[in-house]
Amino acid sequence: MGPACRICGHEYENMLHVLRYCNTARDIRNKLIQIDGSIRAKDAFAATSGILRDQSRRWIIGFNRYLDNCVVLDSKLSGISDGLKLALDGKRVLIQTDSLEAVNIIQVSDHESSNLALVMRIHSLLKLLSH
User: Fold this and answer.
1) d(CA 51, CA 131)
2) How far is CA 45 from the centre of its chain?
3) pLDDT digits 0-9 by tens, 14-73
4) Which of 10-14, 96-100, 122-126 is least confident?
5) Which conformational region is residue 59 in: left (phi greater than 0), alpha (psi within -120 to 50 degrees), or beta?
6) Which of 15, 45, 95, 97 is spaced 20 to 30 A from 76 at the CA atom?
């Protein structure tokens, strides 16, 4: 792989280019969904929350939802799903989460996962956003 930008094909790819000059990367950052999900151990209280921001990082809408009993991964995936539903009117969306496990399970689409229905819902929402 050469030094060219893998996003737009510019001669050189470096952080300054991607963050400031790459128009394609700027378009991808059109909307930002910040997600968090958490579980309170003592009583298994599970919830997810997030915010949707515009390209200038201004607040558009926030959300939260009680999830009943579930594992942390399910709360993260539910937050991603809820955020995508709110962003359906946007063209491009960037999802920010602190869960590498959630990102991996969405990318791999493990059919033996206990979260298969939730992952399939996320894939459907992502397809709607890409059209």
Assistant:
1) 23
2) 23
3) 766 666 677 766 655 556 777 777 777 777 778 888 888 877 778 888 888 888 777 788
4) 10-14
5) beta
6) 15
For residue 30, CA distances in Å to 14, 21, 25, 57, 72 come to 20, 15, 9, 9, 28
80, 83, 88, 91: CA torsion to nearest 10: -80
Query: What domains, with CATH codes, occur in the chain?
Result: 1-29 (no CATH), 31-130 (3.30.420.10)
Euclidean distance between the first and final Cα of the chain, in Å? Answer: 30
Cα angle at 58 between 54 and 60, to 5 degrees?
A: 65
Q: Which tens digits make up the pLDDT trace of 78-96?
A: 888 888 888 876 656 777 8
Cα separation, 37 vs 55, whole angstroms = 23
